[in-house]
């Protein structure tokens, strides 16, 4: 989109307004209107103020002198001359050239002249705010004699990738360019994700500065952990907010089997990654940052189609295939529209499951997965200033088997006869399937008056995740010290996660661009139920150890174990423009967060059945303050200070074998019981940044540096000897670093890259009473790469009278060689073979051709077939070596294929 400037040259802030409105609502009636909104919706729309005449801005006379140039640049020049904002999607004006323009003309006449023959029209969103859209029925003005024409092929935009400065984001709950947002952020729209080949959260995390993402923290490779700027924890509640539109879906880490769901990257408008705590506007869980997956809304004025199909082959494995289609159409022009989408993606496996006793391959390429998505969205302009948007999103993802492969510990006895010396082979006794299905139903309501905008989001998120893990090796490693079972033995563990979240947010924000203060205020409520089960069935081991038989042979049996998070909060943020160049931001969130948890588990490794309940309530306050200084229209300097937090929780009682005298697992650390609660922890973040544009917007550079202090960290304490753990607030940490993002367009070549340098470490030694070893040492690093870099280059060129292009992306993450808690001999969790963070490099290549709305391309992902050991698990780790088998996860091997997309 494009943006006007005021008479000082400082860019004006922009907010998206869905449809025109024309009359101001009386300020005195605001409170009554909010209170009676549900009644107005039930009664119809007769109570909404009617439309009035356009403002005088469109009739203002201009002495405009604009040379013939790309249409987007001409519209920006007109916006500056008229002191208005002109909003448009960059894709609408791609490849269009404007005529020259000589005044005097009215703004209305100037727009008509610039848009003549473009099949675009201008309409007034509000006084001084003008939008562009396609005309519903092309008129005679769109004839071939039009002065608006396509530019020559050699100078077309680089494969229609919208430059960073032309995207819209809602990181501050209002529509703005990234260059105008005083936050370190990354944003990817659909065109960028297509050309980069991004399909999942793994792809986004790999190329985004500040993110650490790890798969396979348990024995199913779908499990994951995500963190931003080193604020990472495997205990308690989430440190990173995960949003689909306005609904947070991140969950608690109730057990090894609980992890977040993420939407597939199909039919998304964009993905926003906000670095640094976002507690004021996004609440609990956004302690280190927030990831937002934004879905497209139906278009009331024009039909659209997006189709993507893909086929390919995976080295060391099988093929992949994808088909997806999305489209929207106005059902009643300017009033009612619908958008539908559906997709199916199959990725073949590359890990063979073998019977190491017989050397037979039981299941070649066993870890195939499929993902299906579907979405229906409506948009109803009940009145010119009232928009209702109901939608339903559904996704299910099924993994046939784990992607983890076996790797014997060097120098240990190997009864398999070296069958696992090469990667991508495992000897699991059974498959490890996983199915993760969720739906999100939502209703968004937008009501606009001339001075305020009211937004309501009501949603229900439902998720059912089930999995089976092979504990045949694990049980024997823990209880017998040998992970290699005899033939014919099986020990399945059954996992399940159930999430049911009701979320309501109501926001009101200023809508008058003439005021020096812009503000947003709102209330938030969420009722989030989450539960999990983990049932370990191993009748052979029960018989071998002569343990009591429970439910036919369960070692451990967990009834639903979980609880309810409830949050109620009020929040507000105001931007106060002290001068044309200087602005002050103040924000505050205050709320009540409560959690009530319950647990029940039994089985021979527990002893007597355990049942416990608990609850906690907290009243968090999360302020934010910042300064912005506009050096000139292309340079923004900012500094922010912000607080983030995550809610506490309760510790369930532990098994009978954890209790006893001084030598018991609890007694050895000076405890008679586990602490009944753990409390919220918090961070304070201090950031400075610079966002600059050069060469008329053809070069962009964003730089930010930060210092984050983390206190009272929620950390797990392992009770060695009884298999349980609890969570406590232990110690402090500090994360500091900087990130850089830039891109530049040179002719038909687009170059860009990112650099992220971070140092996240604990700043206190935590030693439990009577314990000889610490939980963490002062100076231990939080696992994560110390620096990451990503570069890309994309070039356009004529090809067979069409537009050809090539693109290469390269990502590199340096190894972390500093000590982390699991690799420090002074810490109780030290394991000789505990993996560190390896060096990682990943290269993607794409070459294609475009004609009409089609894009046909060849691609190579993981071009050099790198296989870093991203995740390494061991059944029992110890300073002397532990059990002799490791389980390793790496990237999908080199993948070659063909993609065809169609846009209309």
Task: Give an overview in words.
The strands form eleven sheets. This protein has a 24-stranded antiparallel beta sheet that branches. It has ten helices and 50 strands. It folds into two domains: 27-151, Phage tail protein beta-alpha-beta fold (3-Layer(bab) Sandwich); 293-398 and 411-903, TonB-dependent receptor, beta-barrel domain (Maltoporin, Chain A, Beta Barrel), CATH 2.40.170. The radius of gyration is 29 Å and the shape is globular. With 904 residues, the chain is mainly beta.
Query: How many structural domains are formed by the residues?
Result: 2
Portion in beta strands: over 45%
Please state the second-level CATH architecture of the largest domain.
Beta Barrel
Structural class label: mainly beta
Gross geometry? globular
The description of the largest β-sheet is: 24 strands, antiparallel
CATH superfamily of the largest domain: TonB-dependent receptor, beta-barrel domain
CATH topology group of the largest domain: Maltoporin, Chain A
- Which oligomerization state do the chains in this entry correspond to? single chain
- What does the average pLDDT come to? 86
**How many DSSP-defined strands?**
50
Which runs of at least 5 residues are low in confidence (pLDDT < 50)?
1-54, 136-165
Topology:
Blueprint lengths: L29 H6 L1 H7 L17 E2 L2 E2 L4 H12 L2 E3 L2 H4 L2 E2 L3 E2 L2 E2 H9 L4 E7 L2 E6 L14 E2 L34 E5 H7 L4 H7 L3 E5 L8 E5 L11 E5 L2 E2 L21 E6 L3 H4 L6 E6 L9 E11 L4 E14 L3 E12 L4 E4 L4 E4 L5 E15 L2 E14 L5 E4 L16 E2 L7 E15 L3 E19 L1 H9 L11 E19 L6 E21 L1 H6 L9 E5 L2 E17 L4 E21 L7 E9 L2 E12 L2 E12 L2 E2 L26 E2 L2 E14 L4 E13 L2 E6 L4 E6 L2 E15 L2 E14 L24 E13 L2 E12 L26 E12 L2 E8 L9 E4 L10 E5 L5 E9 L1
Parallel strand pairs: 3-8, 13-16, 20-25
Antiparallel strand pairs: 1-6, 2-5, 4-9, 7-8, 10-15, 11-12, 13-14, 15-16, 17-18, 17-50, 18-19, 19-22, 20-21, 22-23, 23-26, 24-49, 26-27, 27-28, 28-29, 29-30, 29-31, 30-32, 31-32, 32-33, 32-34, 34-35, 35-38, 36-37, 38-39, 39-42, 40-41, 42-43, 43-44, 44-45, 45-46, 46-47, 47-50, 48-49
């Amino acid at each position: 989109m494009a943006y006007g400037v005021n008479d000082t040259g400082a860019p004006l802030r922009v907010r998206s307004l869905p449809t025109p409105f024309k009359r101001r609502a009386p300020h005195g009636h605001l409170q009554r209107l909010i209170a009676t909104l549900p009644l107005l919706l039930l009664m119809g729309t007769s109570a909404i103020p009617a439309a009035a005449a356009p403002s005088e801005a469109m009739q203002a006379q201009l002495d405009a002198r604009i040379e013939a140039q790309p249409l987007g640049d001409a519209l920006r020049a007109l916006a500056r001359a008229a002191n208005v904002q002109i909003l448009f999607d960059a894709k609408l004006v791609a490849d269009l050239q404007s005529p020259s323009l000589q005044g005097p003309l009215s703004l209305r006449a100037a727009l008509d002249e610039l848009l003549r023959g473009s099949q675009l029209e201008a309409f007034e969103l509000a006084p001084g705010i003008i939008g562009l859209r396609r005309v519903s029925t092309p008129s005679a003005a769109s004839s071939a004699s039009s002065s608006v024409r396509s530019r020559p092929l050699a100078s077309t935009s680089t494969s229609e990738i919208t430059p960073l400065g032309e995207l819209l984001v809602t990181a501050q709950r209002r529509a703005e360019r990234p260059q105008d947002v005083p936050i370190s952020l990354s944003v990817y729209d659909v065109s960028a994700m297509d050309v980069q080949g991004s399909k999942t959260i793994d792809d986004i995390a790999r190329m985004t500065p500040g993110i650490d993402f790890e798969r396979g923290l348990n024995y199913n490779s779908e499990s994951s952990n995500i963190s931003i700027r080193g604020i990472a924890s495997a205990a308690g509640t989430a440190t990173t907010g995960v949003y689909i539109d306005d609904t947070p879906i991140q969950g608690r880490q109730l057990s090894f089997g609980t992890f977040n769901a993420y939407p597939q990257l199909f039919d998304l408008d964009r993905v926003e990654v906000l670095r640094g705590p976002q507690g004021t506007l996004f609440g609990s869980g956004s302690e280190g940052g927030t990831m937002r997956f934004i879905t497209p809304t139906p278009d009331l004025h024009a039909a659209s189609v997006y189709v993507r199909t893909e086929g390919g082959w995976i080295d060391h494995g099988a093929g992949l295939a994808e088909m997806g289609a999305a489209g929207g159409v106005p059902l009643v022009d300017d009033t009612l529209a619908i958008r539908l989408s559906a997709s199916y993606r199959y990725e073949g496996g590359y890990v063979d499951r073998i019977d190491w006793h017989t050397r037979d391959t039981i299941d070649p390429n066993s870890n195939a997965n499929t993902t299906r998505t579907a979405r229906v969205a409506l948009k109803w302009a009940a009145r010119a200033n009232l928009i209702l948007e109901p939608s339903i999103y559904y996704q299910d993802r099924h993994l046939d088997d784990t992607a983890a492969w076996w790797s014997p510990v060097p120098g240990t006895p190997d009864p398999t006869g070296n069958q696992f010396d090469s990667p991508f082979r495992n000897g699991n006794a059974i498959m490890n399937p996983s199915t993760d299905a969720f739906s999100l139903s939502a209703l968004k309501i937008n009501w606009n008056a001339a001075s305020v905008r009211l937004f309501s989001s009501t949603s229900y998120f439902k998720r059912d995740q089930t999995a089976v893990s092979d504990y045949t090796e694990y049980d024997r490693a823990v209880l017998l010290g040998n992970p290699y079972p005899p033939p014919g033995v099986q020990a399945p563990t059954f996992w399940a996660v159930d999430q049911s979240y009701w979320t309501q947010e109501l926001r009101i924000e200023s809508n008058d661009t003439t005021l020096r203060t812009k503000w947003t205020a709102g209330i938030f409520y969420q009722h989030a139920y989450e539960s999990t089960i983990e049932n370990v069935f191993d009748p052979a081991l029960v018989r071998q150890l002569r343990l009591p038989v429970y439910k036919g042979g369960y070692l451990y049996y967990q009834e639903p174990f979980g609880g309810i998070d409830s949050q109620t909060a009020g929040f507000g943020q105001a931007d106060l423009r002290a001068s044309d160049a200087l602005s002050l931001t103040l924000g505050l969130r205050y709320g009540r967060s409560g959690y009530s948890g319950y647990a029940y588990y039994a089985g021979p490794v527990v002893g007597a059945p355990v049942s416990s309940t608990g609850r906690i309530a907290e009243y968090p306050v999360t302020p934010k303050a910042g300064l912005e200084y506009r050096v000139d229209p292309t340079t923004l300097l900012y500094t922010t200070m912000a607080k983030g937090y995550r809610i506490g929780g309760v510790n369930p009682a532990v098994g009978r074998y954890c209790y006893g005298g001084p030598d018991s697992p609890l007694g050895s650390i000076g405890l008679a019981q586990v602490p009944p609660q753990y409390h919220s922890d918090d961070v304070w973040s201090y950031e400075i940044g610079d966002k600059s544009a050069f060469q008329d917007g053809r070069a962009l550079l964003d730089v930010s540096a930060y210092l984050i202090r983390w206190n009272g960290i929620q950390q797990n304490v392992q009770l060695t000897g009884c298999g349980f753990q609890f969570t406590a607030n232990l110690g402090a940490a500090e994360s500091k670093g900087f990130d850089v993002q830039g891109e530049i367009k040179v002719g038909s070549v687009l170059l860009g890259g990112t650099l992220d340098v971070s140092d996240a470490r604990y700043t206190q030694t935590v030693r439990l009473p009577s314990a000889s070893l610490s939980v963490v040492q002062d100076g231990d690093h939080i696992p994560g790469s110390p620096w990451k870099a990503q570069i890309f280059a994309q070039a356009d060129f004529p090809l067979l009278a069409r537009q050809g292009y090539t693109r290469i992306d390269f990502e590199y993450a340096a190894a972390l060689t500093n000590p982390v808690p699991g690799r420090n001999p002074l810490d109780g969790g030290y394991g000789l073979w505990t993996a560190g963070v390896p060096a990682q490099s990943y290269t993607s290549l794409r070459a294609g051709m475009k004609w009409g709305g089609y894009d046909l391309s060849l691609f190579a992902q993981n071009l050099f077939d790198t296989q870093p050991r991203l995740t390494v698990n061991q059944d029992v780790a110890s300073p002397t070596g532990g059990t002799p088998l490791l389980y390793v996860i790496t990237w999908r091997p080199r993948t070659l294929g063909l993609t065809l997309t169609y846009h209309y």
